Each structure stands twice: as C-alpha cells, then as structure tokens.
Amino acid sequence: MRLAYLFALIATFILGAPAAAEDWRAMAERHTVELSEFTFHTGETLPSITMNAYTLGEPRRDADGQITNAVMLLHGTGGSGLSLLRPSFGDELFGPGQLLDIEQYYIISPDNLGHGNSSKPSDGLRAEFPRYDYDDMVRAQYRMLTEGFGVQRLELILGTSMGCMHSFVWGSDYPGVVRRFVPLACNAIEIAGRNRIFRQIIIDGFEGDPAYDSGNYAYPADVKLGQVTYAHMRLLVGPNPYRMQAEAPTREQSVDVLRGVTERALANPADPNDTIYQFDSSRNYDPAARLSEIAAPVLWINSADDFINPPSLGNPEALARSMPNARFVLIPASPETRGHGTHTYPEFWKKELAAFLLQFP
Would you state the pLDDT for residue 21? Predict the structure, then answer.
C-alpha cells in the first residue's frame, strides 16, 4: 500500500481538503458480539458480555484467510463507537484517496465495555456490575476482534482520550498484534493530580446526590445534582479557553452558555451508574514502566490547549523516547484548536498521520 500512502500524503499536503460530507454513521454496519464467561480483573465472572461495534469498508484476506486491512478506532470516556464516525472526523479520513479510505481499510469502531450498546451497569445489574478497569476493557476489545471478527492482526489502532490510553495498554499486553499506534490526547502516567480530581468530582457529584440511593435511583433524571456536576465539569475541562473567550466574551454571554449546558444536561441525562464506572475505570492505569516493551511504531499526539493533559505534564517527550519507535507531537494552541477535543478534528494532525503512514507503510 506504499503507493496509496504516497498519493494520500501528496493530497494531504497539497490539496488539504476533505471529501464531501458523508453520513458515516448511516453507512456503518452494526455488529453484536457475545463473549462467554468473561472474567474481570477482580476475579468476578459474568456468563457473557456483549460488545457492540460498527464497521466501514470490507475485510480483505490473504492466502491463509487472515484479514489484512483491519483498523480499530477507540473512543473516549463516555463516548461510543459512533463518536468517531461523525463528519468532522470521517470526512477528513475515510473518503476516496484519504488516509483511512474505506475502500482500502476495514474500519472497526466498538462501543467499549461500559459504553454505548455494549454491556454496562444500566443493563440491569446497576452497581452490582463488576467494577471494570482499562485492562478489562482492552481484553474485551481483543476477544471481540479475535472471536467476533476473526481479526488476528490490526494494521492500526487510532485511539482518542480513553482510547489513547487503551493504546498503551494494547502495546504492552498484546505485542505483535498491532502494527502501528496513533494515540491522541492522553498521557502515559498514573491518573492522579488534577486529572483524577476532576473525575472524582463527577463521581462524587452522582454518589453524593440523595436521589442516587446507592445506585438504585428510579430514573437517571432524578439525580439532578450529579447531572449538573457532570455537565459543568465537562464544560470546564474539554474546550479550548481561547475559543470559549471568543464565543462568550461578556459575563452575560458566559452565564448564558452555562445555563444552556445545564438545561441540556437535565433534558438529556446520563445514566449515573454508567458514568461513575466510566470515569473510575482509569483508576489502575499506569503504563509508564512498560512503555519500553512497545516495539510497534507509535505516533503520539497531544494538543497544547488540553486542560486534561497540559504540555510537559509527566514529560511525554521522555516517555515517548522510552519506546523504540515512538514520536511525540504537540499541536500548538490557537483560536481554531478544540482543547481536549482537538483529537476529533483530523485537520489539525492529519499531515503528521500521513507522514507516519508513509514512514511505516
């Protein structure tokens, strides 16, 4: 595929324009994979769990029947497999001649454990659902690929935020399975300091609400304090502050933004148990000591306006150097970047991706 990468690289640098907008979500095929006897890191076992996933493109097979063109996308905390099938992402990458052209690649985008339509507390077990962590989530991804899709080897994992962190777990736990990694918007150190604090504020906002009732609430909307806390924290930690200042330059406009976020949160409530589990699942994450085991090429990209992963925290440049074939890129902050959400806008990093795929075809 080296020639295809070359053409894509030229298009990215010279043309720079995405394909016409497509409804990638409508084009995607939905799959349900049942994984029997799933054991969690706690030792608990469920008779089965469900992994939901969306695919674009068709699998290609070699002479031995092995799929050779699979790419997995991994979404962030609270997202789903549809999160990266939106136009802002897909229009830049999935079209004809683009870097992840679905005529060339078989894109697999799962709802990860605890998210979307995959198994989660709100399915019925509520707070009795096993307290999964990132290792459990990655194990579920691996079993989904091998047992459900027959994929033994991935051409690429591209992960955003939580999916970025999952990439580092994959690299050390499943060596040789993934040819290349593109982790976007995360760090490779323990979730502590401000990162853990904002997660704990969300968890405490739900659990401290009297309506939470130890996870036995009647309706998610009843847990109003938790819903508002969750919405306000996302508003603070996600966006680009320069962009927020430009879009709400007065006190009145800023308050209007906050009120609008509050109203939408109460009108479209998240499930409290699901959300608590999602934000607590990073509690055991700390891949730094095993990064040297990741021999596959890695393109690690963060953005300078990311409140959750600010520049130089944890010294990501040094962490990248501990991997044999890794490169760390920091996207400068600008009025156009999207804070932590810059990961979902390939316009800011697709030139780096094109060069990476050309270097490691």
Answer: 64
CB 46 within 8 A of CB 70: no
pLDDT 10s digits, 271-313: 999 999 999 999 999 999 999 999 999 999 999 999 999 999 9
CA 254, CA 244: separation in Å to the nearest integer? 9
The strand pair at 326-331 and 70-74 is best described as: unpaired
What's residue 20's pLDDT?
A: 52
User: Which residues on neighbouring strands pair with residue 123, listed in sequence order?
Assistant: none
In DSSP terms, 74 is beta-bridged to 159
Closest C-alpha among 360, 285, 288, 273 to residue 319: 288
267: closest CA among 325, 228, 321, 307? 228
Q: 3-class SS at 154?
A: strand
93-128 burial, b at 16+ Cβ within 10 Å, e below that, comes to bbbeebbbbbebbbbbbbbbbbbbbbbbbbeeebbe
Q: Is residue 73 exposed (0-12), middle (13-18) or buried (19+ Cβ within 10 Å)?
A: buried
For the chain, helix (H) and strand (E) counts, in that order, are 12, 8
Kindly report the pTM of this predicted structure.
0.93
pLDDT grade, residue 243 (50/70/90)? confident
Strands of the sheet with 298-303, listed across from one edge: 29-39, 45-56, 106-111, 70-74, 156-160, 181-184, 298-303, 326-331
Distances, alpha carbon 94 to alpha carbons 13, 20, 23, 54, 80, in Å = 17, 11, 11, 14, 18
